[in-house]
Every structure is written in C-alpha cells, then in structure tokens.
Amino acid sequence: MSFKNIFDNGGNEAGSADTSAQALNEDTPGAGDISEAVRKLESERDPWLVRQTAHGAFDVMGFLGPLFRNTRSAAAAQRQTSEDPGSTSSMASATTKAFGPPKVDIGDEDMPKLEDLSKLIADKRSYTLIATGLGTSEGLAVDPAQNTAYVADRGGQKLYAVKVGTGAQRVAASGLGDIGDVAVDGRGTAYTTDYAGGRLLAVNLSSGSSAKIADVTGAYGVALEAAGRAHVANWNDGQLIPVDLPGGQKGTMTTGLGQGIAGVALDGRGKAYVGRKDGGGKLHEIDLANRTHRVVTSLAGSSTIRVALDGAGRAYTIDHVTGSLYEITLADGAQRVVATGLGTCEGLALDGVNGWIYVSNREGQLWQIDQRAAQALGGVGKVVP
C-alpha cells in the first residue's frame, strides 16, 4: 500500500466521522441552546448529575467535530508531504532560519535526584565497609533471617550484633572468655568457643546470658549441624570433636589434622572442611562417617583461618597475613584471590540466601562483599574504606 492510499483512507474516515458528529449535534435534543427537555430534567433530578450527563456530552460533541475536521486536513497535508519530501526539508530550513537552531534547556527538575544516584551507586558496589569499632574480631557468623551478623571480639570477650543493612551495632553478650569463634542456630542461640578456658558455650541472644555446654581443650573453631550437633576444632591437638546439643556429650573425634586447625564448615552431606593456619595454610576435607581426611589444597605462604562453603562446589577462606579472600574449587583444589585489603582478617561468613560474603578483622572492621562480584573474572580486587 502506498503512502497516498494510507493518507487518503485516513482522510476519508475522518471526514465520515465529522459528518456523523454534525448530524448527532443537530438531531440531539438539548444540543446548542439548552432545550426545554433538559430544563425539565434539571428541575426534577439532581442538577449536577444532569449537567454531567447532558452538558458534558454536548461539550464532547463540540470537541469531536473540529477534531475530525482537523484530522481530515492533516491527512491531506501528510499525503502532500509524502509525495514531495522536499517540502519537509524546505519547511525545516525556513524554521531554522527564523528561529535559529534548537536549544536544549535542562532545568533542576530534569536532573537525577541525589537519592536515586546514591541507590544506583550502592547497587553497583561490589563491597561495603559496614561497621567499625568491633574490637579485635576473630569469629563471625551471620543470620540472614534477622539481617544480622555476629562478630566475636576476642580482646573484649564480647559478642557484637550488627545489622548488616544499617551498620547499627550492640553488645549481644559479654564475659565470654577467650572467644575464638561463633555459630548461630537461627533460633535465638549462639555457640561460642573459649580457647583459653577450653569451653563450648551457649549464648542466649535475647538476654545475653551464657552457659557452658562442654569442656573442649583448645576449642577454637565451631560449626553447627542440622541434626543438633556442634563440631569444634581443637587448635592444640589437631582434632575435630563432635558435641551433642544441648547435652554436651562428645562423640568420636577426627585426629591427625595437625596443630593450628581453626575454622570449620559443614556441607550438610557428611563432609566437614577445616582450615589450618600452621603447616602451609592447608584446607582439609573430612568424611564425618569414617573420620578420614584429605588435603584439598595448600595456600603457600598463607595462614588459612576460616572456611565458608557456597553449596555449589566452592569454598572461601581468608589469609590474615596478606588480608586476602580466596575462592577454592573443592573438586580439584584450584584457587585464586578474589579480594585484598581486608586487614588482619580473622572472621568469615557466607550469606548464601542474599549472596553476601562477610569478613571481619582485628582492626574492628566488618566488610560485606558481593558474592557474584567475587566469582567474576578478576574478583573484587582491593577493598578501600
């Protein structure tokens, strides 16, 4: 179909609508001057309703008639332009000469709002320093349901609760001894280790009170099993010790892991992963059923303290000497650094629900790192406060 046919058809349709509107306007009682019929209706019914239905309709008819006539005229002009494109160029040239080139005028109302920019920037950042002033942090746990991270302050014998969305912090419990690690059960209880005191403690997160669950020599790292059991790393003797909760009965331990084992993570399928600070920064995999173990990888020159699992075949660990966060493939031990600049990092936790990695350090800082950014080529790079 040619442009001429398109505009001719459009003009014809608009002409027909114009004729119909004129006929409707002439034949409808009350059109033009107010008729006796309308006056009678207004005297018997709500005048406002009548004016809305009758006069409003007349106004619409008065608007539609000229609109259809204008549409018909526009269609004819558009047809002429389609047949002679030079007319459009001539018109544009004449307009430019008369009024000059078009000017762009951007007012304050056109500028992006500061709060929108802030949100956009926040969404794009791959890491955030959430909180400071958390003492000499070592252990770390996160409860996604409460939007809260729990930071163990070893020097202050305290457990901090930090809202990860705002950075607001409070002391959840104190007097916890030489606290080396913390794990939370999601039901209002945290479990902490007291290295010097050789104890596993249960902490009521509502009241801040604590009680001993079991005596565990050299207790440092701790992880919780869904079946109601804690697994505690004995730093001194290289042992992983299962402890029933809440009774405190100890099960058969895994031995021969070497002195200096620290963080513990469980995969929920019968395997535990333990980081070892001493002996070349090793990551051990332990079969909990038969208590055998193997070295997944060694991080030469590093001090592997904590371990976190993403449930997709990867582990994260930290090196507190270089302030680095590592990603490790459990199948083959492949490793790479995905973030640096984390200070003397000692605490590590993974929020798999929301995709965040949390790292705390002895400088009292709590970092939040985007897990997807860490997995990308090049990782996060150096974090900067």
Structure description:
With 385 residues, this protein is of the alpha+beta class. It has 2 domains: 3-93; 127-382, Neuraminidase, CATH 2.120.10. It has helices at 3-27, 36-44, 47-83, 85-99, 114-124, 278-281, 371-375, and strands at residues 127-131, 137-143, 148-153, 158-163, 169-173, 179-184, 189-194, 199-204, 210-215, 219-225, 229-234, 239-244, 261-266, 271-276, 282-287, 292-298, 304-309, 314-319, 324-329, 335-340, 345-351, 356-361, 366-370, 381-382. The chain has a 5-stranded mixed β-sheet. A 4-stranded antiparallel β-sheet has the order 1-23-22-21. Strands 2-3-4-5 form a 4-stranded antiparallel β-sheet, with no helix packed on it. Strand 11 and strand 12 (239-244) form a beta hairpin. Helix 2 packs across helix 3 (47-83) and helix 3 (47-83) crosses helix 4. The chain starts with a helix and ends with a strand. Mean pLDDT is 81; it is low at 46-61 and 116-124.
Index terms:
385 residues; four-stranded antiparallel beta sheet; five-stranded mixed beta sheet; Neuraminidase; alpha+beta; single chain; 28% helix
